[in-house]
Amino acid sequence: MEVKLFGQKGVSSMNLTKQDRNQLADGHQMPKLGLGLYKVTDEAVMQKLLAGAYETGYRLFDTAQMYQNEAMIGRALQALPVQRDEFFITTKIAEANQGYDATLRSLEQSLKDLQLDYVDLLLVHWPLHQHFFETWRAFERAKAEGMVRSIGTSNYGQIHLEYLATKANELPVVNQVEVHPYLTQKPLQTFTNEHNIVTQAWAPLGRGGELSDPLVVSLAEKYQKSPAQIVIRWHLQNQTALIPKSSHVERVQANMDVFDFEITNDDMQALDDLNQFKRISQEPELVYERGAQYPHH
Ligand SMILES: NC(=O)c1ccc[n+]([C@@H]2O[C@H](COP(=O)([O-])OP(=O)(O)OC[C@H]3O[C@@H](n4cnc5c(N)ncnc54)[C@H](OP(=O)(O)O)[C@@H]3O)[C@@H](O)[C@H]2O)c1
């Protein structure tokens, strides 16, 4: 399978469209731009959000067992006039549900809550040393049994992916990691590109905090776009898939209005140079050692 390179200088990306999908190494496809649903826990907001997002063109919705909104998403999807194969659902196995049996049991519950026969993408939410290979063995089985279409990881660094490859029968096809202008993760993205693993950015807007960065604001003025649209377009031109979240339908719509302009190579470089190795969330290595995302768990 062809390995896609990213960040190539001089390659026009003007032909990006909102329907664009990544070809995954397992033969399936995944929309490049999806909607994150972390912290959306109000039923009325969820219904409005999914309906508005679907109408705008979003097809990928990202949740996790940890977000405690799978059942709500299930109900909101039922309310949409769409066929199952028209949308792409990602969920993630929580740390407490890792291990062979627990992964499979909890996946059954997620499917029940989502009212689905399968999810399009199942991710290991965080690497944990205790259940590292057993959890992945359960993922391979879930895929073989049709409970999931594609399997992937989240918050895995290069070393976790290389370790997983020592025993895995199948490699992850997606690695969802924290990526935003202050944490560009170029070396990890180069590694995953070389291994045909698609990088999908979480907190792609830096949780909103990077939208007031002076460079981002000045580029927004220059291109007559919003700061969020500049950052979203930057991800896409770097060939990073992404799942920005908003609880506001107008913002969800605006976040997809990024296909009528192109950031120049110089401005792309300037955005890349904002990197400060600054994480919003946990250091994956600590979670791996601690066995939980938060110290008190
Ligand atoms: N795998 C993991 O470990 C992991 C961890 C965290 C998140 N995720 C996933 O990634 C998704 C995205 O990450 P995130 O939610 O942490 O952060 P994010 O998408 O970077 O930022 C979301 C924040 O930006 C604001 N925002 C969105 N669009 C905006 C706009 N156009 N103008 C101004 N502000 C805007 C939102 O506010 P409003 O909602 O008020 O509009 C919200 O506060 C999550 O929802 C979740 O699905 C995965």
From TrEMBL:
Query: Per its UniProt entry, which superkingdom is the organism in?
Result: Bacteria
Any idea which UniProt keywords this protein has? NADP, Oxidoreductase
Spell out the InterPro entries in the cross-references.
AKR (IPR020471), Aldo/ket_reductase_CS (IPR018170), NAD(P)_OxRdtase_dom_sf (IPR036812), NADP_OxRdtase_dom (IPR023210)
Q: Where is the active site?
A: 67
> According to UniProt, where does the site described as Lowers pKa of active site Tyr lie?
92
Query: Oxidoreductase among the record's keywords?
Result: yes
Ranges annotated as spanning the membrane: none
- Binding residues for substrate, per the UniProt record? 125
GO MF annotation, one:
oxidoreductase activity, acting on the CH-OH group of donors, NAD or NADP as acceptor
Q: Domain named NADP-dependent oxidoreductase: which ranges?
A: 33-208, 216-275
Stated family? Belongs to the aldo/keto reductase family.
State the protein's name.
NADP-dependent oxidoreductase domain-containing protein
